[in-house]
């Protein structure tokens, strides 16, 4: 549910110019986030426009999770133990990091560092000479970086 909740502001924060280029995709409209989260959940279900981005995608990777060239990571784990996640990735890739290098990678992957350098995440379409804007509205790519946000919108009893 965290993924659906996180995707809710992400979808509506694409720039109008980008959406126009893609015929109005991704869909979004001004509305309370709880209402939009409910729409995203419906769109993630079978036959929904985001369906393949969720369950089939995860299921396909889950089938190969034990292969030696596959490393599955979960955002919650990275949030709870970023240094451990960096170590896990370095080990997977066969990279030996010094303590200083490890600390530097952890710092650059931190939420605070990304928020401080949010301008670096203003993606554009450099190979499209007719497109001069960014994909996302300025300052809207980096969310709140919290675990458990799905509980804000979804409960066991419903929404």
What can be said about this structure in brief?
With 159 residues, the protein is mainly alpha-helical. The chain is 47% helix and 0% strand. It has a single domain (2-153), classed as 3-Layer(aba) Sandwich (Rossmann fold).
Structural write-up:
The protein is mostly helical. The protein has a single domain (2-153), classed as Rossmann fold, CATH 3.40.50. Helices cover 47% and strands 0% of the residues. It is built from nine helices and no strands. It has helices at residues 2-12, 16-21, 33-44, 55-62, 75-80, 82-93, 99-108, 111-116, 150-153. The chain starts with a helix and ends in a 6-residue tail after the last helix. The model has no long low-confidence stretch (mean pLDDT 89).
The CATH homologous superfamily is named P-loop containing nucleotide triphosphate hydrolases
Radius of gyration: 18 Å
Q: What letter string, H or E per element, gives the SSE order? A: HHHHHHHHH
First and last CA, distance:
11 Å
Largest sheet: none
Per CATH, what is the topology?
A: Rossmann fold
Number of helical stretches of at least 4 residues: 9
Q: Which descriptors apply to this entry?
A:
159 residues; Rossmann fold; 47% helix
Record the SSE blueprint:
Blueprint: H1 2-12, H2 16-21, H3 33-44, H4 55-62, H5 75-80, H6 82-93, H7 99-108, H8 111-116, H9 150-153
């Amino acid at each position: 549910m965290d993924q659906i909740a996180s995707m809710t502001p992400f979808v509506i924060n694409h720039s109008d110019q980008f959406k126009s280029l893609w015929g109005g995709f991704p869909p979004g409209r001004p509305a309370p986030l709880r209402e939009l989260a409910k729409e995203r959940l419906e769109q993630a279900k079978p036959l929904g426009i985001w369906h393949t981005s969720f369950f089939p995608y995860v299921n396909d990777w889950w089938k190969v999770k034990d292969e030696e060239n596959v490393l599955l990571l979960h955002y919650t784990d990275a949030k709870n133990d970023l240094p451990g996640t960096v170590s896990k990735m370095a080990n997977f890739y066969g990279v030996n990091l010094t303590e200083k290098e490890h600390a530097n990678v952890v710092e650059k992957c931190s939420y605070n560092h990304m928020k401080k350098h949010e301008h670096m995440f203003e993606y554009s379409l450099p190979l499209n000479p007719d497109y001069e804007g960014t994909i996302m509205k300025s300052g809207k790519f980096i969310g709140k970086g919290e675990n458990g946000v799905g509980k804000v919108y979804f409960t066991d009893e419903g929404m």
